Amino acid sequence: xxxxxxxxxxxxxxxxxxxxxxxxxxxxxxxxxxxxxxxxxxxxxxxxxxxxxxxxxxxxxxxxxxxxxxxxxxxxxxxxxxxxxxxxxxxxxxxxxxxxxxxxxxxxxxxxxxxxxxxxxxxxxxxxxxxxxxxxxxxxxxxxxxxxxxxxxxxxxxxxxxxxxxxxxxxxxxxxxxxxxxxxxxxxxxxxxxxxxxxxxxxxxxxxxxxxxxxxxxxxxxxxxxxxxxxxxxxxxxxxxxxxxxxxxxxxxxxxxxxxxxxxxxxxxxxxxxxxxxxxxxxxxxxxxxxxxxxxxxxxxxxxxxxxxxxxxxxxxxxxxxxxxxxxxxxxxxxxxxxxxxxxxxxxxxxxx
Length: 353
Fold this sequence. Notes:
31% of the residues lie in helices and 24% in strands. The protein is built from eleven helices and 16 strands.
């Protein structure tokens, strides 16, 4: 999302126009759902993003270029089945997607402040949404919403109209105007303790999937910006007392522990369990996990508290390499974010990678 809007801001700042094509609704089996985007700029810049590839993406790109030449916005729907009927794309998926082709005019005085607002929110830590109001004539207005400053840049649209659309995925409300709200930035930070081989891979994967990652390591050579180009913050310091130097961990945050040693893992875990973190995961073998749990129990933690820990970390996909272990850990964290982690608890919580 950040790459899309950063690229759009760069295109507009260079004086070029662009069409931002977004899936705003989908039904049935489709490659991508609401929120998937492709940016089609003028001025020779490359395309960015995807709305699912294949025939639907080809049609979307062609139509976006047509609207770019006509300098207008429009909705369009595509059926992914219908092979041989003349009204579908002949794809095996069989679903339907509705796309909004949003024309951005660099001469529109509202565009630059809007994109500035969006990029600031994308660099923040709180949940935020974009809200678009599209009229029947194709014109649109776009604003942003976060719980600190509320709804802004969208005159004539009330918060009561917008609130039902503020979910974890893009939501469309038909009418005049059509309203579409889409998550811009999810609340919550992943605090990653340990900048080793798995941690480096995990930080990159989590950033790709929309998480804000903060890295902490005691070793200067492991807490280097060039190693973690996708991290929001990098800290080098003792694991002991680390949480006193970080912002208060909330119930929307995630803690992943991948330090080089058992004692360091225990030091971080003992602090993590005193927070309301949504997820606490610790790398290691089953034997190590059991030993660490016993040590925490001896230190006065209850069985219910130690049961919060996902260790060995990750879903049981059979991975062995650092990248594979990172994929399994990222999958577990994504499942937690989506509310589906409970479904994996029995077969995944204490299973080895």
